[in-house]
Specification:
Chain lengths: 267, 272, 253
Amino acid sequence: MEDEKNEPNEEPTTDNSEDVDEFDDEEISRDLVVPGETLTEDTKTFLPGRGTIFNKDRTKIISLNIGLKQVKRNYINVIPLRGFYTPRPGDKVIALVTDKNPVKYICDINAKDRGILKPKNTVARGKPRGYRGGAPDRQDNSTEKYKIGDILIVKVLSADRLNKPELTTVGKYLGKRRDGLVITIDPPKIPRVIGRSGSMIKMLKDLTKSNIFVTQNGRIWLKGENLAHERLLIDAIRKIEKEAHTVGLTDRMSEYIENEKKIRGMN
Amino acid sequence: MMNIKRVISTIEKNYILSNLKKGERIDGRDIWQYRDWNVKSNMIASAEGSAEVSLGKTKVITGVKYDVGAPFPDLPNEGVCTFMAELLPLASPLFERGPPSEQAIELARVVDRGIRHADCVQTKKLCIKEKKAVYIIFVDIYVINYSGNLIDAGGISSLTALISSKIPEGKWENDEVVWTGKYLTGDTLVNELPIVSTYGKIGDIIFSDPSLPEELVCDGKISISVTEDKITSIQKSGFATFTIEEVEMLTKKSMEFGKKTRKDLNLWQYKL
Amino acid sequence: MPLIIKDEYPEKLFREDGKRLDGRDKNELRPIKMEVGVLENADGSAYLEWGNNKIYCAVYGPREVHPHHLAKPDRGILRVFYRMATFSVFERKRPAPGRREKEVSMVITDCLKPVLFLELYPGTSFEVFINVLDADGGTRCACVTVAALALADAGIPMRSLVTAVAIGKIDGELITDLSGIEDKAGEADLPCAMTWFNEELSLLQFDGKMDLDEFNESLGLAKEAISKIYEIQLNALKKKYIEIQEEYSGGEK
């Protein structure tokens, strides 16, 4: 089974702690806005940031999404509460192989376009191919490595509005997952599941003794000791998804899990 | 649970199967446990009878309409009861627009056969004048949210809609149907209560009430309709095969389930 | 054989005390109830009860276009499918979509397009499925209102919501929000929808007879009624989140 050499041996840990928690508790105003709502009429001081736009006569800034209003320096942003995933280069995402042909795999990455994984991006470059100086094998030129239905953790290499995103499985933590379970939540709420510098995810892992890998496209891979732990974890994630726009979530979640553990009689 | 896509991931299938082998299911039910039923009736004002049935997150709305028409030549003194099912594209990304799919036709047919062979709808009472005018009852099943096991939800909702319906009574005078001003209600229309129960099979494990992820990964399903003491229809679908012992066991299970459901849901309370 | 009981049109559409048949004043709306996020599988969804109208709406997208030849290389497409249930009307409707349904679908599509940024999503489609389970007049207005809610619930960037209402004329008087019977027996029907980012009309149809003054007056009435419905729309959209916020903020906001 030489094709497994590039896959991670240790279980992945969360690697996305560099992401900022956009729902940062201190800075966030709890103003809920909906599309078309006026955010400010002071267009001299403020500029439209993410999720906002000037109206036609530039007399006010309006929201484009349902979300939370946030003022950062002189920008007004709206942090969306609902939305879809748009791939950006560098994102780690969970992909499902939905189709393949001799030159590429086609992966569902929960975005508007399906991602493309070329065989050359499934084999690490710079390593000697083949054994002991033997002829290089053709692994990187055929789509034999993954099957339809496989769950892969991939990184987005390139993505823009017009072309299909290109993916790679070469890198730390990337590759095929052999067990566990994948659940999907609203992509805009992913930062909240991660928490500020990964605090939420660390708490979830410690309390439920599970392995979690959270990716930007709203999919979460998880594997626990047994079904009871996994179900508790799923319930907790669903609760985070539902209450993403509230304050003090991390503390409340740890309380919730401790409580549920007692109710469900788990240690 | 997992995002619904046409291709089912291998790990999800393995996950469901390995847990079923241990007698556990992802949503915490045990092997023979049903999700919660929620039945509402008569919320559609334009329909003669209607029902909204939820089984877990699966949600089905059924409406009853009638028309008066000529009977079939071979059954001159019997009314007609037809079933139609539509899998609305809003219920799931798996459903497509356009003419009814095979799945929709199967749903309507299985519900139809379960009810027809149980003599549930008393078609003889739906005759106004022999060879001239009979009632045509349309039972239309609309799937609003798809989360597995549409057949059981469709069966209960059709029954409830029929029970809750109120159809103007007509009589034959001077070659014409005249309305008496009275109404035919559920107890005239419905006689027996056939209850359909569905079982899924993965590998050699059988479980009842498949939820959406289970339905998508299972090898096959079997739906059994029963009245108080008789089996009225069976439909096996998918590529799974069932041993004779398994079928015997399942028919016994469906009888028990039918008795229990008839008591728990108490569908006659929805009669007007 | 046709149905024997027919819709009976009353001679007068006002009661003796000057109220309408269902007890409303001339410019009173029917009770409206809206809810978002009602369907599990859809990207965005909404449910609306407007008098007797009961409507479910689901939004999917942006996603790949099927059939593929409909895809536009420079922008996304919006497709609306307005369908009525067979039991939603007095006489059973045939299950296949008819000409009326296709026309209404098109009208709603054109009405919603101005608020979306379709040019940002080339080669994709936004699909809006609207199912009318019970119909009692003014369904196209109700559908526009509920579709805007479902689009907002899906998190699709929008310039603003869209709200619609119908103004009619019965027995020589202008009324707001026609019911089914007033629509059929009345003299005129004016459904219109407003996009809130520029406060302009994006749906306008008219059937019947009105003189110019009446027409101008009815547009004023429409604006008034639309503002009221807009409030309900906003509340429906925010309610889900605010309830949870209040539960945990311990009263201080």
